[in-house]
Design brief:
With about 200 residues, this protein is of the alpha/beta class. The chain folds into two domains: about 1-45, no CATH class; about 55-200, Mur ligase, C-terminal domain (Protein-Tyrosine Phosphatase, Chain A, Alpha-Beta Complex). The protein has eight helices and eight strands. Strands 3-4-8-5-6-7 form a six-stranded mixed sheet. It has a two-stranded antiparallel ribbon with strand order 1-2. α1 runs antiparallel to α2 (about 40-45) and α3 (about 75-90) runs parallel beside α4. It is globular.
Length: about 200
């Protein structure tokens, strides 16, 4: 990335994907300069930043790239994750989003899940796919389908649902996992590691 600070161009690398993380980095740059750090010191610091566990961590499983952002979710975070995923996985033959329920949204939960479905449909393209996991996410799946996205809803990942999702993946897919902590959509990972596309 390149930014202008105090009349000079500052180039730095950032290991965190997405516009929202770029904005955070720019804020850190401005604050660091305000506190008397040199651009070189800030650049070195930003280069060391790595994602926390289950916060857009990329993992290669067989021929599938998984972006595990399953630590937690709210409407803004899911929208940001979807946009970041669409950007970093732009060259994948197919992008697959596995989106769990967002919890503790009160009376707005239906409208907010519908909004997430529409965002998914707006950033993913024809040929991409999404699974919506959990009772609240049914509204997101309906909205995504209405907007033209290949979307499927399952009530939970219990039973064989995680294995079914893993089995439906294809070579070269990029997968986003995102949901509230209670959704635990990272349960797809063991199923993916055991899937024929990886194990066989």
């Amino acid at each position: 990335m390149t930014a202008r600070a105090h009349g000079q161009l500052v180039q730095f690398e950032l290991r965190l994907p997405g516009v929202h993380n770029a904005m955070n980095a720019l804020a850190a740059l401005a604050m660091g300069l305000d506190r008397g750090l040199t651009p070189a010191q800030i650049v070195r610091g930003l280069a060391t930043v790595e994602p926390s566990e289950m916060r857009m961590v990329r993992e290669r499983i067989g021929s599938v790239d998984v972006y595990n952002d399953a630590y937690n979710a709210n409407p803004d975070a899911v929208a940001a994750a979807l946009r970041s995923f669409a950007e970093v996985a732009a060259r994948a033959p197919r992008r697959v989003a596995v989106l769990g329920d967002m919890l503790e949204l009160g009376d707005a939960e239906r409208a907010l899940h519908e909004e997430v479905g529409r965002v998914a449909a707006s950033v993913l393209e024809r040929g991409d796919r999404a699974w919506f996991i959990g009772p609240r996410s049914r509204f997101g799946a309906d909205a995504a389908r209405e907007a033209g996205l290949d979307a499927e809803w399952v009530e939970s990942l219990d039973g064989g649902a995680a294995a079914s999702i893993a089995a439906a993946l294809a070579e070269g897919d990029a997968v986003l996992l995102k949901g509230s902590r209670g959704s635990a959509v990272e349960r797809v990972l063991p199923a993916l590691r055991a899937a024929p596309i990886v194990a066989g």
